[in-house]
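Fold it.
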Amino acid sequence: MRASWIASACLGLAVMAHASINTPAEPVKDHQEQISSAEQSIDQGVAYLRDNNSDAAAAAFSVAIHSPVFAQLPPNARKRAFLLSGLIAFEKKDYATALDQLKQCTSISTSDLNDRVDEAAWSGRLESAYYLGNDRDAALSVIYVAPRWPAAITAMDPGVIYQIEAGIRGTNGDLERYYLQALFDMNWNSTLGTADDLWRDLSWFWLKEGNTEKAILVSRRVTAAHTVISMLVDKRFDPITQVLHFDVDQVIAKELAADKAAVSAAPDTLKPVTALQDFLLDTHRYAEALSLSDAVIAKAGDGSGAKAYKDFDEFYVWVLDGRARALERLGRWDDAIRQWQHAARRPEQGAMNVSQVINLASLYAGLQRPKEALDMLSDVGNMSPYGRMQLEKIKLKAAIEQNDEPGIAQHLDYLRAHRADDIASWEIALIVTNHLDAAADLLVERLSTDKWRSDALVDMQDYLDTTQTPLGAEEMRRWKIIVARPTVQRELAKVGRVEHFNLDSP
């Protein structure tokens, strides 16, 4: 929890003294006593917070909120109680109570509250909804917060923004469009990379509304090569691509130049380095990618990395990851394993480095070394729904190598039940278990479904050849079989096209 929330709330609300609350003229004595008692409970709760006694404060606010006369208190008093009660519940990770209290808080209109207090209420509501998995309410909160306090959205983990979008995708077109438009209007960008896929999706909503002008305006912000490809090969976007005339090779050259310029402009940061690494890998410039990472490793080798790079703790592990991926794509399996083993020892957000562990386990699985893959995954902790799909996919591959029929069934069941978390992983699960008819049917479903079509079409394109692990090569052989199926080709002809691009497959 942001420590400033309760502090800001107290600063903005505690000054509203008991005397500022207006009570009806000449009330009935018992009623007046109830009003006074509720007011005193709120004031007492604020006092407890000043003394850092959140348990006592929560109890005091609860007494006030459950008073039979609470609804008759002035709006400021009720808002104060709901806000502080909700933020205390959030701090205690009681997200259901926090969301309930903060939703009621934000529904009360007042005219004289400190702006930081209102921001705290909405930010708390947003994060409570997110932690509860209530993506609809989290999206509504982003829509409200983004134009008023854009810095609050910028400060959030971009993974949260993407996960909310994934949670509402395909559930309510208006909500998703408002959500994406709110991010677009505040010029949101992601520290994980560009937000181009979001702008592509927003442009599609405007096309569906019949507003080609707005769709083109949004699409002008798309600069990432893979997103441009997803639009060029999707017939839905023809009204845009026929006007903007994207040239993928030019887009690639511009993106590469921009990434190199970003590295030169910020020599004391690693985030631009990781972005450049990714693009060098995409364009098969493996020697350059290795040279780039080796220069950083040499600079940090004497233990001075944190002094040389201000974002060292956050991004150095991704420099190591990029180096491992370059080695993997060169077919230098043992070197890649050693690099990922080193990267996996670095903590990720204070906990076990799940990302690097999964990457290394995936390589072991691809090399048909199931025991080592499973050993890597034995201590993996909490992860996102998408991460869990990656884990189950690796375990499925290991179970196949070990002829573990119960394990195969178990992992297939999980991947099937949670396919909405990552439909592409479910596709791969069907391929590796050699259910090619079902895999072809799923690909047709992906092509015919708005929310899955772009990724399906991108997967189907013809890309630069890449060195494959033994299992990876077999997966690719089966993938080409299902892509060639007549049912798949008929659906493809309706919605898109396949072309060659000078990039690595996504």
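The radius of gyration is 27 Å.
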